[in-house]
Design brief:
This protein is α+β, with helices and mostly antiparallel strands. It contains six helices and twelve strands. Helix content is 26%, strand content 37%. Strands 7-8-9-10-11-1-2-3-4-5-6-12 form a twelve-stranded mixed β-sheet. Helix 1 runs parallel beside helix 3 (34-49).
């Protein structure tokens, strides 16, 4: 049997049977020239070395929308970096995130800052400045709250045009807001194979960049509804916008 015939034969048999066949053929060819035998063995390895087919843009978006479409609650650890163009400075924050659909979100930062969304308004509390800023809005895209993107992740294609940011990372997508008044210019979203968002990079229209990494995500966690209410400490300055 020629080398070509042996290669074709091995392509047709089962993996377990292939191991036995290879040993027999190697033994048979111990007196044969070494180079053809090495080439033959390399051919046998080719099928298992082929990469899995990458998912398309629409398949990735669908997996994310399906995941967050059925999600009721979520907890996660957050690492956030804010690159501020005007002052040429980068801020880093760590915190814990809680989400309860529809429309509720709380993010406690380790530096004493709190972000709270109750479905109607957003509260920003700073322990250091002793201030509470309250913003009322009807659209998360217009509110410029990067992490709030998760609240609308079940309907990405309703609000964004979706592109592939880099063919080498097919599960990283570039999202362009459809609404002209959106605070963000574009958003890069990374998701795992289950459709769970693992990272966001938001580029706003002022040139600032916010990077958010999610870790230790728990879907369906039990969350006390009292967590989505906030009472500012006595003496806090309240600013309504």
């Amino acid at each position: 049997m020629s080398i070509r015939e042996k290669s074709h034969f091995l392509m047709q048999i089962k993996p377990k049977e292939k191991d036995i066949a290879v040993k027999c053929i190697v033994k048979e060819n111990t007196k044969a020239p070494l180079v053809p035998l090495i080439f033959f063995l390399a051919l046998c390895a080719l099928p298992s070395a082929l990469p899995a087919q990458a998912q398309s843009v629409q398949e990735v978006v669908t997996s994310v929308e399906n995941h967050y479409g059925t999600l009721k609650t979520l907890t996660a650890k957050v690492t956030q970096k804010n690159r501020l163009k005007a002052v040429d400075m980068t801020q880093k924050f760590d915190g814990t995130l809680w989400i309860e659909k529809p429309g509720k979100l709380r993010l406690n930062y380790t530096n004493g800052q709190v972000l709270l969304i109750d479905g109607k308004a957003a509260l920003f509390y700073s322990k250091k400045s002793e201030q509470l800023i309250k913003k009322t809005f009807t659209d998360f895209q217009l509110a410029n709250i990067p992490v709030a993107f998760l609240l609308g992740a079940a309907h990405i294609r309703d609000d964004f045009d979706v592109l592939q940011s880099d063919p080498k990372t097919p599960r990283s997508l570039e999202l362009l807001p459809k609404k002209p008044g959106a605070a963000m210019k574009k958003l890069i979203m990374a998701a795992d194979t289950d459709g769970r968002i693992t990272g966001l990079t938001i580029f706003d229209r002022s040139g600032n960049i916010t990077e958010i990494i999610f870790a230790q995500e728990v879907d369906g966690a039990t969350i006390d509804d009292k967590l989505f209410t906030f009472k500012a400490p006595k003496g806090t300055e309240v600013i309504e916008q």
